[in-house]
Amino acid sequence: MTLGIVAALHEEIAQLLGEMAPGAHVERIGMRDYHVGRLHGEDCVVVLARLGKVAAAATATALIHQFGVKEIVFTGVAGGLAHGLAIGDVVVADALLQHDLDARPFFPLHEVPLLGQARFATHPALRENLAEAARRYLQTEMAAQVPGDVRAAFGLTVPRVHLGLIASGDQFIGSAARLDELRAALPDALAVEMEGAALAQVCFEYDVPCAVLRTLSDSADDHAHADFPLFLRAVASAYSHGIIRHFLALRHR
């Protein structure tokens, strides 16, 4: 059974691609490079989707149709929405919705037209394995893999794993005003990003199990852009590699 692994930014899968490279081959479809090979004993296709919902949907569709993947996991960064979350925490989605989808008055706010639902659940086993993999990585490896000065700069002390709703939209949320709007509209949402709900909708329509993992890089407010390149390079890359490695190991216990 082939697993698809997707990210929006190169740094989020760079270490995975490096580990996969010796025996992998690359197929280019729709301006994307699909790396086909094995990771820790599992057949995988790893691909950079690029940013946004359309990019994620197109990539997920190609994974299903062209490569026959049976499950898809998305890994990357997100902004925190809920109070009490911290930079460096991990959110694993139990469901996703598109916060910028509004077809009123014909359909309820956030509902996908003609599908009759707004929230798309992730696969229980996949998300539980991802959450457990994140816990193991944070408890056993994170401090050794993320340099001390970087951990100090971002306040990474005891990162936690959260399970809950993730909101997606074709917007970078970088203002306190917009953050407050989203909190009011979606009081149970934990994080906000730009791809996950689109991928989850495609997987729902094709009956392919999926899961979404997000490392919190900011609090989606007026300071959301601060030091993002450093976080992506020094923290998110290590998180994605370590958590996915533990995830694959859990699947072969």
From TrEMBL:
Domain annotation Nucleoside phosphorylase: ranges: 2-248
EC supergroup of this enzyme: hydrolase
Coiled coil region boundaries: none
Record's keyword terms, sorted: Glycosidase, Hydrolase
Origin: domain of life: Bacteria
One Gene Ontology cellular component annotation held by this UniProt entry: cytosol
Record-level Gene Ontology MF annotations: adenosylhomocysteine nucleosidase activity; methylthioadenosine nucleosidase activity
Transmembrane segments: none
Assigned EC number: 3.2.2.9
Pfam families in the cross-refs: PNP_UDP_1
Protein's GO biological process: L-methionine salvage from S-adenosylmethionine; nucleoside metabolic process
InterPro entries: Nucleoside_phosphorylase_d, Nucleoside_phosphorylase_sf
Protein name: 5'-methylthioadenosine/S-adenosylhomocysteine nucleosidase
Taxonomic path: Bacteria, Pseudomonadati, Pseudomonadota, Betaproteobacteria, Burkholderiales
Gene label: mtnN_2
